[in-house]
Amino acid sequence: MRMIIAIDGPAASGKGTLAKRIAAHMSFHVLDTGLLYRAVARDIERSGFRLNDRWAALAAARALDPVTLDDPHLRGVPAGDKASVIAKIAEVRAALLKYQREFARRPPGAVLDGRDIGTVVCPHADIKIYITATPEERARRRHLEHQARGEPATYDNLLADIRARDARDSGRDIAPLSAATDAVIIDTTNLDADAVFAAVMTIVRA
Ligand code: DC
Q: Quick one: pLDDT at residue 151?
């Protein structure tokens, strides 16, 4: 049996951590699809082009080597903002679809997290989760993570970034951030990571 679990949600909603935990528990493959967009933005700039250059963006998306996703520079706020900008380009999204769909079919199962997994990439996923929390709570969690790593970032700046990302990811024309009509929506504002994991595992087992 092959199972596909789609996890979507806004920036800093905790979907990546949740996806990895479910995948580890189920011995499934896991793909953080945000990394694909982050890596395309990285590669456009490395080639000396600007992020709004559609031709360069398409070339970078087509040439993307998944081996390079394991790059620490892809983490962090600037890489996420750049990813959010190039994610608006239709040709980029189309070029990244095939890899994501093939990944989703890996046996015995796969967990993919992103913005459009349940709506566009895997509309037939066995399980669709949409995980969200208020912008203030997401900024609070991000701030704690930054403090733990000793990175300088103020709560206000992180909140402003989250609001800007939400607006860009929800407002774009193609594959905007939204919950699939058949997704289970989990608001984690008042839930800790263990409670969210337990809730999702109850759905998976059912
Ligand atoms: O999940 P993340 O923060 O790493 O994603 C970075 C950006 O990439 C996000 O702001 C929008 C884009 N993205 C997307 O458009 N579709 C996805 N499935 C995943 C990410």
A: 84
CATH superfamily of 3-205: P-loop containing nucleotide triphosphate hydrolases (3.40.50.300)
In the three-class reduction of DSSP (H, G, I as helix; E, B as strand; rest coil), residue 77 is classed as: helix
What digits encode the pLDDT tens for the residues 91-127? Answer: 999 999 999 999 999 999 999 999 999 999 999 999 9
**pLDDT at residue 27 above 80?**
yes
Q: How many helices (H) does the chain have, and how many strands (E)? A: 8, 5
Distance CA 110, CA 122 (A): 11
60: alpha, beta or left, given left = phi > 0 and alpha = psi -120 to 50?
Answer: alpha
Check whether 178 has a pLDDT greater than 80.
yes
Q: Distance, CA 149 to ligand 1 centroid (Å)?
A: 23
User: Nearest residue CA, atom 1 of ligand 1?
Assistant: 34
Q: Residue 3: which H helix or E strand, with range?
A: strand 3-8
**Cα 163 to ligand 1 centre (Å):** 14
- Look-up of token digits 């939400």: 166
**Which atom of ligand 1 is found nearest the CA of 11?**
3
- For 10, 129, 130, 183, 194, the CA distances from 169, given in Å and listed in that order, are 8, 18, 14, 18, 27
